[in-house]
Amino acid sequence: MGRTEPKVLNMSGAKAMESDKLDRNPGSGTAEDGASTKDQPAHLNGCVPLSHQVAGHKFGVDKVGILQHPDGTVLKQVQPPPRGPREMQFYRTVFAEDCSDPCLLDLQNHLPKYYGTWSSPDSPTELYLKLEDVTSRFNRPCIMDVKLGQRSYDPFASQEKREQQIRKYPLMEEIGFLILGMRVYDARRATFDSYNQHYGRGLAKDTIRDGLARFFHNGLCLRKDAIRASISRLQQILHWFHSQNQLVFYASSLLFVYEGLPSSFLSRPPVTDAMMKTANLLLVGDGGKAIQEEAGLENKKEEFNNNTAVAVSWDGGLSTNHRTDPCGLRALLHISRAEEMAASVDRPPVLNDQNRPANGNSNEEEDEEGRSGTGGQGSAGDPEVEVRMIDFAHVFPSDSQDQGYIYGLKHLLTVLEQILCGAAQNS
């Protein structure tokens, strides 16, 4: 039995944007300017695989992958019809220069900025969406991709597709969201822990809270400031969904990003591997090497993320072993002073640290908040956090509210609030 082809977004009133690959490029020059890099394969035209991608199709593994342009933007290859053209039309509609719809104008605030399309001169028929890299302003971006909604297939999906998606995560309808992947900066070890889609699918109703809390734990403390800021941004997105009845979203995600580097380190020179090793030796003497190996400080692959060299695990899953503690929370409660000591090795004292008393003492709450602050452009009450909606290959017109997405958002907010409440009770 044939399926009815879904309606597409109404493009009436929007200017033709066939040339938008040049019209909306950020920075100086066109989308192609500065794209030639001798160190990269010619067919990529200076672009490289996105190093900090946590979910979705990866370039070099899948045919359709994510790249990073030399100007810092993200290139998402347009998928085959109808998904790719549908997502491209969605971005073009929302970011049309003559857009006057208050609903869509408000939606722009919750999406990565769209800069048109891009294609390599070597493969002009392969189109990419040119998008803002929302992680670019972070030093050590902690990133999480969460799929939202009660089902991850659209109304026009085949029965086979429906059954496949349900098998992947049978609890989607009840929980309303699924962690697709994440990477978390461990400030104690100065490394990233990576989690893939299997981590999220392994979370049940009784473990979803601890599983989500892991994203906000930096090895030293629970980043309550990042949770609060994430809740605030989710509430803004929820308000948008309550105010609109034009669009319905399936298999769409939220991208969470927060600054993983403690604020005390953002104001200091960078901590090098040699300094970390020296600090560990000062802490444990001859046992320093064992501590380093256990913490994964050696044999880590370095990546250049936003022009910053960082160590990261590329095993596709959790890079540390927590067999005896599935969520690893007990292990995370052990606070190492290695990075703190490393920051002071062979350095003069910091004289402009006005947040710490002259005697170097502070109460426990102040110390925790100081470690978990983010510094940078935000103040102590406004940490560096981003929450953006992404992935729009299954967005359709509607005449009612998107109850599935709203359900997922509300449950996600509830779980985050429970994490904060639990932290307050344990403090």
TrEMBL record:
GO terms for molecular function: ATP binding; inositol-1,3,4,6-tetrakisphosphate 5-kinase activity; inositol-1,4,5-trisphosphate 3-kinase activity. GO terms for cellular component: cytoplasm; nucleus. InterPro entries: IPK (IPR005522), IPK_sf (IPR038286). It catalyses: 1D-myo-inositol 1,4,5-trisphosphate + 2 ATP = 1D-myo-inositol 1,3,4,5,6-pentakisphosphate + 2 ADP + 2 H(+); 1D-myo-inositol 1,3,4,6-tetrakisphosphate + ATP = 1D-myo-inositol 1,3,4,5,6-pentakisphosphate + ADP + H(+). This is Kinase. Keywords: ATP-binding, Kinase, Nucleotide-binding, Transferase. It comes from the Eukaryota. Pfam families: IPK. Residues 1-45, 343-382 are annotated as: Disordered. Belongs to the inositol phosphokinase (IPK) family. PANTHER family: INOSITOL POLYPHOSPHATE KINASE, INOSITOL POLYPHOSPHATE MULTIKINASE. Its EC number is 2.7.-.-. GO terms for biological process: inositol phosphate biosynthetic process. SUPFAM superfamilies: SAICAR synthase-like (SSF56104). Coiled coil: none annotated.
